[in-house]
Amino acid sequence: MEILVETARCRHAAVAFLGAEAPDILPMKRGDTLVVNASDSAVRSRSTSPDAITTYLSHGVLVYTESELHAKVIVMSSWAAVGSANASLRSRDRMIEAVVVTDDKTIITSALTL
């Protein structure tokens, strides 16, 4: 999936929590959109890394916060992934996660409106 993310023209993601390594796990570029739970409690508990957010912002990513976010949805130019994984080493290396990847245009359009 990392190759698909790197080659996509347009990236939009809603990922509840970001580990410090999130920019490597979920690379994004200028103009891409990221929604994350960056609430005080998420940052205090280290569920969301302020360093990761700073890195995304320095790369020109549009970062928004939603304190009740629990979704994990990534939409690229021609596909979408919906699943349980956060952008963290814990999700990548330790947890048993599930993700569905689709190129169904109806699902991609629907995911963009969330």
TrEMBL record:
It comes from the Bacteria. This is Phospholipase D-like domain-containing protein. Pfam families: PLDc_2. Residues 48-109 form the Phospholipase D-like domain.
